């Protein structure tokens, strides 16, 4: 193997992704050429790495909130918490089965919790995952902007805190 002066020397060749997959019993039923066609990257780090549990939960929240119908369900629960499926369906323009599927996705993302009261299934908004998304993705951008605005205000008003 020729050594490229720009690349550091490789002491031991890494396993190709298909070599690792073939050794895995759950993937052993597929023909070998499938792996070579499917996996184009030479390094395994690009494939099948488990995501952290935090990222999986965040992905579910983003996926659940991506649909306008599910956002409308969240808005309805924010307006009046503890609604039954019938009450939610009356305010949504969809059939009961479609509403159930949307609500199940919100439950899977932990955005909606369910409490049984007798024979009624009440749905409640859980704002914690939304706050976690805000804390992780929005707040850091907001802090820079607010810091900039504070500095701009200080410069415009002078160093004496607005006293002239």
User: Strand pairing plus helix content: what structural class?
Assistant: mainly alpha
Q: What kind of sheet is the major sheet?
A: 2 strands, antiparallel
Tell me the radius of gyration.
26 Å
H/I helix tally = 7
Number of strands: 2
Q: What is the second-level CATH architecture of the largest domain?
A: Orthogonal Bundle
- The succession of helices and strands, N to C, reads HHHHHHEEH
Oligomer designation: single chain
Outline = elongated
CATH class descriptor of the largest domain: Mainly Alpha
CATH superfamily of the largest domain: Winged helix-like DNA-binding domain superfamily/Winged helix DNA-binding domain
Mean pLDDT: 76
- Beta-strand proportion: 5-15%
**Helix content estimate:** 40-55%
- Poorly predicted runs are 35-39, 42-51
Strand order of the largest sheet: 1-2
In whole angstroms, the N-to-C terminal distance is 74 Å
Number of domains: 2
Explain this structure to me?
It is a single chain. By secondary structure, the protein is mainly alpha-helical. The protein folds into two domains: 7-49, no CATH class; 53-125, Winged helix-like DNA-binding domain superfamily/Winged helix DNA-binding domain (Arc Repressor Mutant, subunit A, Orthogonal Bundle), CATH 1.10.10. Helices cover 54% and strands 7% of the residues. It is built from seven helices and two strands. The chain has helices at 17-23, 32-38, 53-65, 68-79, 85-91, 96-108, 128-157; strands at 112-117, 120-125. A two-stranded antiparallel ribbon has the order 1-2. It is elongated. The model is unreliable at 35-39 and 42-51 (pLDDT under 50).
């Amino acid at each position: 193997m020729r050594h490229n002066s720009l690349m550091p020397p490789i002491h031991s060749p890494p396993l190709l992704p298909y070599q690792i997959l073939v050794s895995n019993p759950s993937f052993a039923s597929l023909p070998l050429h499938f792996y070579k066609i499917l996996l184009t990257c030479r390094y395994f780090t690009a494939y099948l790495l488990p995501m952290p549990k935090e990222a999986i939960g965040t992905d579910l929240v983003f996926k659940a909130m991506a649909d306008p119908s599910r956002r409308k369900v969240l808005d309805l629960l924010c307006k009046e918490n503890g609604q039954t499926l019938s009450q939610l369906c009356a305010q949504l323009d969809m059939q009961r089965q479609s509403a159930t599927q949307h609500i199940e996705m919100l439950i899977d993302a932990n955005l909606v919790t369910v409490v049984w009261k007798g024979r009624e299934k009440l749905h409640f908004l859980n704002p914690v995952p939304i706050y976690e998304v805000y804390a992780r993705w929005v707040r850091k951008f907001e802090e820079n902007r607010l810091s900039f605005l504070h500095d701009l205000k200080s410069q415009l008003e002078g160093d004496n805190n607005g006293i002239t």
